[in-house]
Each structure stands twice: as C-alpha cells, then as structure tokens.
C-alpha cells in the first residue's frame, strides 16, 4: 500500500470513541417542573411488569431508534411517550455531559422543563408512578457514594502462554462509583443518581 493512500484514508477519518459502533445508545431526560414551593425534579418508578429493573426509580428515557433525528429528539420522544404529554409541553431542553457505561451503553442526558404536572398521564406499561423532589433537597444534600470493583475473569481457553507473566499476569482492574440519594421512602441510585449529581454540580 502506498503512503499517499494511507494518508488519504487518515485525512477522511472522523474520530469517535473506539468501539462505540458496538455500543447501545440511550437518551434520557431530567425533567424540571415549577411548583408552588419552587422547582422540583420529576422521577418515574418503573412498572413492575417491565423485564428490566422493575420498580426502580429513573428518569424518562430509552434506547434511540432509527427514526430519531438526534439524541435530543430521542430524549424528548421518550419523555413524551412515557409521561403521556405532547412534545410541546417539554421546553428548555439542554444537554448534560454524555456518559460511556462499562456495560456497553452510551447515555445522552438532557434537562428539560415540563410545563404542567396536571397534564401528565403516565404510560402504565412503562411507568408505575411518578413523584417530584424539590431541587433544593439535592442542592443541600450530598449523595452517598459507594465503590464497586470489577474482577477480571478470562475465558477458559484464554492464551496465557502468549502474554508475559502467563496466568500470573497483573491485570489492571477498574472500579465504579455508585451514587445514592434517599428521599423519604424513595431510593434514587445508579445511573439516575449519577446524572442527577452531575446536574446539581453544574447549577450549585
């Protein structure tokens, strides 16, 4: 192969996260709503009939599909479908930092304003209930943070004879922080709590 061909291919390449084409892409919305006592954050409790994470607390959102123009439109669509409101009721939508999950997901969070709590009619197939928490609660209260360490377990036929150190190779392991907020009888944790903590860091 000629050097000119190599350079031409490099010049036309658009950089991305290596391997990201294999990741599932999700978009979520952190909904804000104005109430009499100030701004609240709205949460969903996932339906107990769902296969994945039934009964857990989350933000509206889901996997992007081929009809979504971009991540923002996916977040708005999912919020509209899950809360049973028109897209016109979702305004002031701004992006937060996107996240690369160790579980093969890229998550694109947004913040948006829901114009009226009274118009919300949650989709019972996905949402068991909704509730709100004053934003001041999260501003005044730091999350509890716990650490998880991942173990390295190569498959049985892994070629240890090809690497220096063999079966005693000193693998680099990584950890992950899990965030928890407790509000009354509700436990907000995991990815939802991490997105929430990032949002509070930005506005505090």
TrEMBL record:
EC number per UniProt: 3.6.1.-
Enzyme class: hydrolase
Highest taxon in the source lineage: Bacteria
Example GO molecular function: hydrolase activity
Cited CDD domains: NUDIX_CoAse_Nudt7
Alphabetical UniProt keywords: Hydrolase, Magnesium, Manganese, Metal-binding
Gene3D superfamilies listed in its UniProt record: Nucleoside Triphosphate Pyrophosphohydrolase (3.90.79.10)
Cofactor field: Mn(2+); Mg(2+)
InterPro entries hit by this protein: CoAse, NUDIX_hydrolase-like_dom_sf, NUDIX_hydrolase_dom
Annotated Nudix hydrolase domain residues: 23-157
Listed transmembrane segments: none
PANTHER family xrefs: MITOCHONDRIAL COENZYME A DIPHOSPHATASE NUDT8, NUDIX HYDROLASE
Entry protein name: Nudix hydrolase NudL
Underlying gene: nudL
């Amino acid at each position: 192969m000629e050097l000119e061909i190599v350079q031409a291919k490099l010049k036309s390449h658009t950089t991305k996260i290596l391997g990201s084409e294999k990741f599932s892409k999700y978009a979520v919305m952190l909904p804000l709503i104005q109430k009499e006592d100030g701004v609240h954050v709205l949460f969903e409790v996932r339906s107990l009939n769902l296969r994945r994470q039934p009964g857990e607390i989350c933000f509206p959102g889901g996997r992007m599909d081929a009809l979504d123009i971009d991540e923002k439109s996916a977040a708005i669509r999912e919020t509209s479908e899950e809360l049973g409101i028109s897209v016109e009721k979702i305004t002031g939508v701004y992006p937060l930092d996107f996240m690369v999950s160790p579980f093969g997901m890229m998550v694109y969070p947004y913040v948006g304003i829901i114009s009226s709590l009274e118009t919300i009619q949650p989709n019972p197939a996905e949402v068991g209930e909704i509730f709100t928490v004053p934003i001041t609660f999260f501003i005044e209260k730091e999350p509890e943070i716990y650490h998880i360490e991942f173990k390295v377990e190569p498959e049985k036929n892994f070629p240890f004879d090809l690497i220096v150190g063999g079966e005693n190779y000193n693998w680099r392991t990584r950890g992950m922080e899990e965030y928890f907020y407790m509000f009354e009888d509700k436990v907000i944790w995991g990815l939802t709590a991490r997105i929430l903590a990032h949002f509070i860091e930005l506005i505090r």
